[in-house]
């Protein structure tokens, strides 16, 4: 190796480029959370049916998850900067259309377009970071900033949305990101380099359709199972999705230009990092499900207040990111991730002891602990996945990383959500006030949100009795799901320690590329 082969340090222009890349990620994640606050207003305006409202909320995440693999590979072929800019323009236009929607059907369609455009952002930005930051320590830090931008977006989404909805109509929540996408279109060509696979072939459209259908069907079935239990309406789409996924994988083996190069999965480090990503986010995303409901439906906070109490958790992600490169330079990834996952497990163990009238500080401290524990896990698995792939396949590897995240999150919501639902229904049916009307009892037994809505229409004493039983039942389910997450994270920590035990610290991996001096060679 010559000195020119060494990883070069990032320039000031590169770091400014990182800030530009972080902006679309910030608003990508904001779009996942900000709509929840606008549901009451848009429901009153557009009058969607229950099924239409479900699709309005879910279609964005569905289309993101289903399009990630295709977009990651497309970026490798046409250019990652080009795809990012195309996606930014599409995201801005779809945001304006969503804000101006005049019917539920139009909003569903525009949210689907937003999901497809959003799917271009994560793999394009991550693969560009891999190209820009060649020094492993700087790249780990840059990935930490990239991850923090997603965390910050998810945290400030409810805050910004709440402020907008106090003064403007529901469509204003979609317009937040439009100026940022315009800024990206202006600065992107100036600050960001272009990179693509010079030997890339054509996109196989049938494979793209197969991957989209497989992910959509599987995630739809999982989400349906989380809401309604183990039914045929949940199992059928999961079976269809898995079947289509099998067809997709078999097709990739025989294509000259596959949508996913399955040879990537032969890399044991990449495969191990993917597995840890799925398991880790399984429990992390599941926690968001019950903490948000606890703050709003048990403690009675508004969405804006719940967002404020959630800020410390997001800040823990952001503040923990700069520490990861320092640790990664000295210690093995297995040790860092094992320690982080164990720390996250301790946070969930603390959360499993929460009570209805307990200290709110306990929830905040627990969420900060598991957020700090997850920070190195997210940063290092992402760096290992993308860093283990050849440069021309970085977009595909980034898409695999993001897909594992989305899939793990969906499974986590299904598993932990099903636990909460089962405990809730069992306890509330046993303790339901006998004077409760039949229809109100049916609605209250389905969800805590339904119980809170029904209580608002009941006499004070009866409402108080219903709320006491419903909230106690929900907290019981929350305690059990947090305990399951604790055990699961301890297991994931062991998986990380075993599967990644041979991967050296970043300093050692970087040292491999250093040239040997003549004196050292002779000694």
How would you summarize this macromolecular structure in one to three sentences?
The protein has 523 residues and is mostly helical.
Structural notes for this entry:
With 523 residues, the protein is mostly helical. It has three domains: 13-203, Up-down Bundle (Growth Hormone, Chain: A); 205-256; 264-513, Up-down Bundle (Growth Hormone, Chain: A). Helix content is 79%, strand content 0%. The protein has helices spanning 12-33, 35-46, 50-78, 80-99, 104-132, 136-167, 178-191, 205-228, 232-254, 268-298, 303-320, 323-330, 333-351, 360-387, 394-431, 438-446, 448-455, 460-499, 506-511, 518-522. The longest helix has 40 residues, at 460-499. It starts with 11 loop residues before the first helix and ends with a helix.
Amino-to-carboxy terminus distance: 19 Å
Label the CATH architecture of the largest domain.
Answer: Up-down Bundle
**Helix segment tally:** 20
Rg estimate, integer Å: 23 Å
Structural class: mainly alpha
Unreliable spans: 1-6, 511-523
Strand content: under 5%
CATH class of the largest domain: Mainly Alpha
Looking at the structure, the CATH topology of the largest domain is Growth Hormone, Chain: A
Helicity level: over 70%
Mean pLDDT: 79
